[in-house]
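Bug #2210: token dump truncated for CGNR zinc finger domain-containing protein?
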Amino acid sequence: MPPSPTSPTSPTAAPAAPLALDYANTLSASRGRASDHLAAWLADHGVEPEPRFGPLRDAIRTLIAAAADEEPYPAPALATVNAASASAPQWLELTGSGEVVAHASASETDRMLADLARSAIALLSDDHHAGLRACQAPGCVQFFVRTHHRQEFCGAACGNRARAARHYQRRKEQEDPAVQKGTNRR
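Reproduced locally. Full output below:
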């Protein structure tokens, strides 16, 4: 099983996004075009793409969007996530030397589906979903966990894009009254 992407690589590293959030963000948009990075994400995690991964991602995105908007979770999305969570029975075993070994009685695909669903369940529980947000940048479809009370964007690029759009809009509004009065700027 791949290492957990939620554990930082060094003590000073910023915490990585929870597995479910990273998975949900395999769908992105740029300049009005949606991009699906699910197959590449699965390959990076050593799992073969399979049709069940798409609906699970969509269900997790639906639940994250509901949490970000402080709305009730839709029942069909809950059913999809809960079914995936139950698809791979797992248990822990304590060895004589004090090590914990995880076991699962399922295929690698079922284990990954279950891990993703369980990560989403942990992320969306009452204790953790308060920081979930949808990026406020124009055209962005990404989600993030707020790390600062004023954070509105999933990353610096989206923040820069939103500031540039506001600047452009202000300039356009300043120039519009001059155009309406009949003055030509050449």
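Output looks complete on our side. The first helix runs from residue 19 to 24. Marking as cannot-reproduce; reopen if the truncation happens again.
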